[in-house]
């Protein structure tokens, strides 16, 4: 029924009562346990009202479990929980990080790191504190204030999960090709929104037109740019970039249609126009916002395989099918490999074939 509340608090039984009539008790008076399935459709304002009835001052904690049954004593709680604190409903994330061991450093690291993602989610970091009961490993409790409008509790839980995924990806101190790939494959692509494109990451909002020579050459060049780069890279089809002062950031996801022929079409275009074939190139689909993205991952390539050549070139918007193009990634843009660099590579190869060593004037060339 439209007027039925999704959750209420029974003061006499001291338990939360769901719309379907099921009840959820807690370990103690101020600690409740919900199943993740309970969050679907549960209105945050109604949970907030129910928790306010538990006590006047202090905090009420709602832990979440993925267990099939909700057992207050034996269920394992997720690192994402909810808290009523000072009358505000908060998303709380418990993050294990031994590299940071004081509040001042944590406050300078975590909020700026999470700001681009949380801003898009209409949320912000409220506080960062060390769990007083943790020693090894250290657990940081990150509290997040979220706009409740137009959301259910499952949405808020997803914000917490996204926060946790981003924190785990940044364990090394910065977003890397490997951690970005992990986020994409785990269904957390939206966490990358607000992050900068760079020397190993490129996004495209729509499919390459693989029915045309232009599209086939374009995808081959996109892969070649990273194959010729030092650290490899990732091309994501289904995310939109936006120019900002100082560069370009990922602004949104825009899932692309995928069918049984999509990945093979990408693979065929690359095979036809890129030589040699890059080692361990992967082309896969990943979930996002109810749709799919195409992710092309190009690991760092052996130097002896470079430069990677594209059969065909795009010159002033025109297709030059008889040309060979050689490109590499530098920063956010692509640049052609220069004639001196190509000549140096060829000359070095010939020298090695003849004498087994490089001449002195070639050893220091780019």
Keywords:
366 residues; alpha+beta; Methyltransferase, Cobalt-precorrin-4 Transmethylase, Domain 2; 2 domains; seven-stranded mixed β-sheet; four-stranded mixed β-sheet; nucleotide-binding; Schlafen_AlbA_2_dom_sf
Short description:
The chain is an alpha+beta fold and 366 residues long. 28% of the residues lie in helices and 32% in strands.
Describe this structure in words.
This is ATP-binding protein. One of its GO terms (molecular function) is ATP binding. By secondary structure, the protein is an alpha+beta fold. It has two domains: 7-169, no CATH class; 197-363, 2-Layer Sandwich (Methyltransferase, Cobalt-precorrin-4 Transmethylase, Domain 2). Helices cover 28% and strands 32% of the residues. The protein has helices at residues 44-52, 103-120, 153-169, 177-185, 213-227, 262-273, 339-355, 360-363, and strands spanning 7-10, 15-18, 23-24, 26-28, 31-35, 59-65, 80-85, 88-96, 123-130, 139-146, 201-204, 233-237, 239-244, 247-253, 274-275, 282-288, 291-298, 309-315, 318-325, 327-330, 333-336. The chain has a seven-stranded mixed sheet with strand order 4-5-6-7-8-10-9. Strand 7 and strand 8 (88-96) form a beta hairpin. The longest helix has 18 residues, at 103-120. The model is unreliable at 331-335 (pLDDT under 50).
